């Protein structure tokens, strides 16, 4: 691939939204010893991608400008580094690029250690969609909240906020695999969809019942997987069971403060801020569930790379139902 050019989309400074995304032609990258070169078939956008552009993790990310955003990809291997042991040219894969990004392009290099095989039953779009959102849902449920998704005894009650979003729609489905009772919040237009994903009770977040987060059947929550923002601890607290916890995926200063205060006070109810980095074994687990027909990705919209700005805008607006995908 030396000397070959590829299409890519990058930005050159903080802020600017979709208007700051520029289409460029640059050399196809070369894989390092432990890397693979992937022809991207699908890349999925997560809020973290445009939050980095907004400077919300400034000055840590991006590591340098210009920066090609997007972490989650699926595609086919076209070249392998000399130290790569488990993959060969022609393999279909799913990978997390992490903070180095690179997904809004025709080709990208990925670490072997962050890559998993994609069986024919899992489309590139499904594979790319799963990575950050699915791993976050899986990690929040099984590691942070320590729920058993194979069998739960006694049956837990959980609340998933923003259950129509990327993370939330996976969280609902994964929780149901563990026979967990799920209450979910979403907008009115998505209530049917979220019920079809398996939620037992659904609250419209724009109603007073929805904003109070009270379960319609009066159940208290053992776990809240909190996938939206702007809900204070004082709203969660009365809805939690005796040892109930909130896993906060959008923690701000107040969330960290609540975490510290609850710890100092030895409160039985706790809030845990979660900052996630997907791992290959978690992606592998999700790919297997999709292959077995136990998990599905809801796709909000698909765009060619030439319309990446529209995909970016769609994600920034915060009203996607499921995942936003770009296909080079
Ligand atoms: N901490 C971590 O490591 C981590 C990992 C992944 C994601 N996150 C964060 O988690 C959040 C969710 O990510 P995502 O990918 O799921 O986002 P997303 O797909 O963009 O979420 C969009 C969905 O959220 C719904 N929504 C918005 N406000 C809501 C509210 N107040 N109540 C209920 N539903 C609401 C929208 O429904 P309507 O269209 O009806 O408004 C829409 O369907 C983001 O802030 C993201 O940055 C954090």
UniProtKB/TrEMBL annotation:
<dbReference type="GO" id="GO:0016491">
    <property type="term" value="F:oxidoreductase activity"/>
</dbReference>
<protein>
    <recommendedName>
        <fullName>Enoyl reductase (ER) domain-containing protein</fullName>
    </recommendedName>
</protein>
<dbReference type="InterPro" id="IPR052733">
    <property type="entry name" value="Chloroplast_QOR"/>
</dbReference>
<feature type="domain" description="Enoyl reductase (ER)">
    <location>
        <begin position="16"/>
        <end position="326"/>
    </location>
</feature>
<dbReference type="InterPro" id="IPR036291">
    <property type="entry name" value="NAD(P)-bd_dom_sf"/>
</dbReference>
<dbReference type="Pfam" id="PF13602">
    <property type="entry name" value="ADH_zinc_N_2"/>
</dbReference>
<dbReference type="InterPro" id="IPR020843">
    <property type="entry name" value="ER"/>
</dbReference>
<dbReference type="Pfam" id="PF08240">
    <property type="entry name" value="ADH_N"/>
</dbReference>
<dbReference type="InterPro" id="IPR013154">
    <property type="entry name" value="ADH-like_N"/>
</dbReference>
<dbReference type="InterPro" id="IPR011032">
    <property type="entry name" value="GroES-like_sf"/>
</dbReference>
């Amino acid at each position: 691939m030396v000397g070959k050019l590829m299409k890519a989309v990058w930005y050159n400074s903080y802020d600017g939204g979709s208007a700051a995304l520029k289409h460029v032609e640059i050399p196809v990258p070369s894989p390092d010893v432990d890397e693979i070169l992937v022809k991207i078939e699908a890349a999925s956008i997560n809020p973290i991608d445009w939050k980095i552009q907004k400077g919300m993790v400034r000055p840590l990310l991006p590591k340098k400008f210009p920066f090609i955003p997007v972490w989650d990809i699926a595609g086919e291997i076209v070249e392998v580094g000399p130290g790569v042991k488990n993959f060969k040219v022609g393999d279909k894969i799913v990978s997390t690029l992490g903070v180095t990004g690179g997904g809004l392009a025709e080709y990208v290099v990925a670490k072997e250690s962050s890559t998993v095989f994609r069986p024919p039953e899992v489309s590139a779009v499904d594979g790319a969609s799963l990575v950050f959102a699915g791993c976050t849902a899986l990690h929040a449920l099984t590691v942070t909240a320590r729920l058993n998704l194979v069998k739960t005894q006694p049956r837990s009650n959980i609340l998933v906020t923003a259950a129509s979003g990327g993370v939330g729609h996976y969280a609902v489905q994964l929780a149901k695999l563990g026979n967990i009772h799920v209450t979910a919040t979403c907008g009115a237009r998505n209530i049917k969809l979220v019920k079809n994903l398996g939620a037992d009770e659904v609250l419209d977040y724009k109603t007073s019942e929805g904003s109070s987060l009270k379960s319609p059947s009066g159940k208290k929550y053992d776990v809240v997987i909190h996938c939206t923002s702007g809900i204070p601890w004082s709203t969660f607290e009365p809805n939690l069971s005796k040892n109930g916890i909130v896993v906060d995926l959008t923690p701000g200063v107040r969330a960290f403060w609540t975490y510290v205060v609850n710890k100092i006070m030895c409160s039985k109810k706790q809030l845990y801020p979660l900052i996630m980095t997907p791992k290959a074994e978690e992606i592998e687990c999700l790919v297997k569930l999709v292959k077995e027909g136990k998990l599905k990705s809801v796709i909000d919209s698909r765009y060619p790379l030439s319309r990446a700005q529209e995909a970016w805008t769609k994600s920034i607006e915060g009203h996607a139902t499921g995942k936003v995908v770009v296909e080079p």
